[in-house]
Amino acid sequence: AVNESSLIDEVILTRIPFSIVGNADVQMSFVFEGTTNSNNGFSGYYFWQIDDLELIETPLNIIKIEDVVVGGFWIDYANYTASGLNTIIGLDYTVTPTSQLANHPYVIEGVLRNLGASDQLSTLKYEVYGTGSYSGASTPTTVAAYSSINIIDSVVVSANPPLSPSIGVYGVSIWAESDSAGTITSVSDTVYKEIEISQYIYAKDNGTDVNGDPDNNWIVGGPDDQWHLTTRFEMYADESLYAIRTYISDESVVGAEIKAVVYEVDSTIANADGGVLLINESDNYTITTQDLGNWIDIPFLSPIDLYSGYAYEVGVAGFVHPTDSAFIGTSGQSMY
Question: pLDDT, tens digit, for every residue of 155-195?
Fold first, then answer.
């Protein structure tokens, strides 16, 4: 993959053609694909340092865990039916209110991939620590080895039981194990997730301070910008929405105005991204000096009814202005 750096002990496993087996004349080449860059007259050069290079036979047992979710995106989403003009996807939420958790517990799922040379009996496992402790595992599942005949070397699994902890903050460790006759033959890397159960907050972030990192900021209003930046939420219980909480980057200009917006998702609209219908918006909110580098709540004039089985896009809108700019925190392409 394209990256800025590699771990000092990183191991790369690459499949090679079956014609290599038994071939006495095999060579490996390393090719640099990229360019140098120049910043203020200084040229940056990229290089590799390669050590301990070996060409070895694939071990019998190597299990890898990929694409771990806690919202039921792979399997559990099918247990829920949409009530509105939308579909239920099963998204990851890092903060979940008790009203939603009662009908939609965290479901830990992932892809188990066999990187070994033999079939493996593998299990996805999780342990929870923090305000309370919990654990669970998937049903042991055979993950076939990759071959010229069998090119499917992965399975999607779901762990039990679903996770419905009490109010508090938790860490979740998720990994995979392969077993043979009661002996663990391979253990994957561990994926770590953080979740929180709250009384009133529904969120996809961990309240992380992104101040000073321009890659985690998005301009919603300025001399050349006027955006409505939103993120999708699915409802599993009726609820009243009072405010939108967002992070104001210190790149924002004091006096810039933003507002909170709520749309209903309509997946029946025939275009590539589906459609959204505006439900409500707040009054304009003026950014103050105290808001810079902090979280703020943008209230609505009156509570907005959100309904179980419906999907909504909620977020923040900015305005074109000749001198003022408003930046909010983002996580990837999703609004906090």
Answer: 999 999 999 999 999 999 999 999 987 889 999 999 999 99
Predicted structure pTM score: 0.82
Beta-sheet strands, E only, within 95-214? 95-97, 109-114, 120-130, 134-137, 141-143, 154-158, 168-180, 183-187, 191-198
How far is the C-alpha of 201 from the C-alpha of 189, rounded, in Å? Answer: 31
For tokens 């590799």, what's the residue?
A: 48
Q: Are 266 and 85 in contact (CB under 8 A)?
A: yes
Q: Is 261 exposed, middle or buried (0-12, 13-18, 19+ CB in 10 A)?
A: buried
Task: Read off the tokens for 41.
Answer: 């007259």
Residue 72 main-chain phi, psi, to 5 deg? 80, 25
CB-based burial label for 108 (10 Å; 0-12, 13-18, 19+): buried
Backbone torsions φ then ψ of 86, nearest 5 degrees = -150, 175
For the chain, give the number of residues. Answer: 336
Instruction: Kindly report the backbone phi and psi dihedral angles of residue 101, in degrees, each rounded to the nearest multiple of 5, phi listed first.
Output: -65, -30
Q: What is the largest CA-CA distance in the chain?
A: 76
Closest CA to 144 of 110, 178, 174: 178
